UniProtKB/TrEMBL annotation:
Keywords: Chaperone. This is FAD assembly factor SdhE. Belongs to the SdhE FAD assembly factor family. SUPFAM superfamilies: YgfY-like.
Length: 104
């Protein structure tokens, strides 16, 4: 599995699984947020951050969309620096369109 910019070839098995799960969330908006976050940050995350990312990923996608878009308040257990960094992440939609061959 390869993200848009990050190849899983040089990742350990745990990071490979996380990269795949980030790009296959079930809701396309979450694929883009989590996938690009993973492409850019996954290799540098510490083990404790990977644990936390997996806990975040266990949440329902419909809830995550609302929390990340700010339409519902983030629950206390997710008010962490990693979640806030993920929620503030702005995917590069131009890059996605280019990789997918979509022109405007």
């Amino acid at each position: 599995m390869t993200g848009l910019t990050l190849s899983s070839a040089d990742l350990d098995p745990r990071r490979r699984r996380i990269l795949f799960r980030c790009w296959h969330r079930g809701i396309r908006e979450m694929d883009l947020v989590f996938g690009q976050f993973a492409d850019n940050e996954l290799p540098g995350l510490a083990e404790a951050e990977l644990d936390e990312l997996e806990r975040i990923m266990a949440e329902e996608d419909n809830d995550l969309v609302k929390w990340i878009l700010g339409t519902q308040p983030v629950p206390e257990h997710l008010r962490t620096p990693l979640f806030m960094r993920l929620a503030a992440y702005q995917p590069d939609f131009e890059q996605v369109a280019e990789k997918l061959g979509i022109t405007r």
